[in-house]
Design goal:
Length: 154
């Protein structure tokens, strides 16, 4: 089952790239109560298209898989239908489930981009070592509230 957690996050953002920049927040989108899987898929691919990307450009998909078999299945279905072959990760086993857990995932994505390595503890499958240029965070609450965060190298 799902593990409860709690946390808070803060980040220093600037519209200007500088010598200390290592990640770029390209986009954020929320989707409330999609009517079906096709609408959700269209929202995700449309979001990527708005940023000039295709699903195959995503180097790592970080999901909100949390141990709830019912909702976790949806993440696996989306990964298989939209992102076949894209490395799949999770993060809630590290921080638990809470309302702002996406902030933890954003921190994790920026650390991956900065270090150019992906911790094995977040990977759901074996992949050869990669250094992704684009990371998509896909999180949901109760299969009704979805968020997408696109992070890229600076």
């Amino acid at each position: 089952g799902t593990l409860a957690g709690e946390g808070s996050s803060y980040f220093v953002l600037s519209k200007n790239k500088n010598d200390h920049s290592y990640a770029r927040l390209q986009g954020v989108k929320t989707i409330f109560h999609p009517t079906d899987k096709k609408e959700l898929e269209a929202n995700i691919t449309g979001f990527l298209d708005e940023h000039g990307l295709k699903p195959g450009n995503i180097g790592l998909l970080i999901t909100g898989i949390n141990g709830n078999a019912t909702t976790d299945e949806g993440y696996h279905e989306l990964a298989g239908s939209i992102f076949p072959g894209v490395p799949l990760a999770w993060f809630k086993h590290l921080c638990g489930e809470y309302s702002t857990a996406s902030g933890f995932a954003l921190w994790l994505a920026t650390r991956i981009l900065k270090s150019k390595t992906i911790p094995k503890t977040i990977m759901l499958q074996d992949y050869p070592p990669i250094s992704p240029e684009h990371i998509l965070i896909l999180n949901s609450t109760r299969d009704t509230h979805y968020s997408l965060i696109l992070v890229s190298i600076a």
